[in-house]
Amino acid sequence: MPHITVDYSAELAGVFDRHAFVRELHPMVLDVSGSAGVCKTFFRPASDTYVGDQEEGQVAFVHVAVGLLPGRSDELKGQLSEDVLALLGKHLPDVPGRPGLPGGTAREVISSVEVRDLAGSYRLHHSPR
Fold it and tell me: Which fold has domain 3-117?
């Protein structure tokens, strides 16, 4: 049931190990949320990202959205957000002081996480093989 979307600046593609990240992310989300479902994650690279008044590409950005069925407390969702941020930190480059990320000029990476309730209209269909 957890639906996860990871939007990220395209210049992180060569340094953000998405496979390793999701391998750790899925069991963590299930454990912290108490979900009995199966995590599904979409990674979406964004070719144009802007942060504040910085020029395009100066700051790389990652945003993770985790959608869960309603019923979790704000405290639990906040804890899950903190845990996901910590995991992102493990899988993203430490760029301050570097001349730029491969394929781009970003000198900073900003990460954010939102854990939200899925809408009441949410439905799931699984087609057997």
Answer: Macrophage Migration Inhibitory Factor (3.30.429)
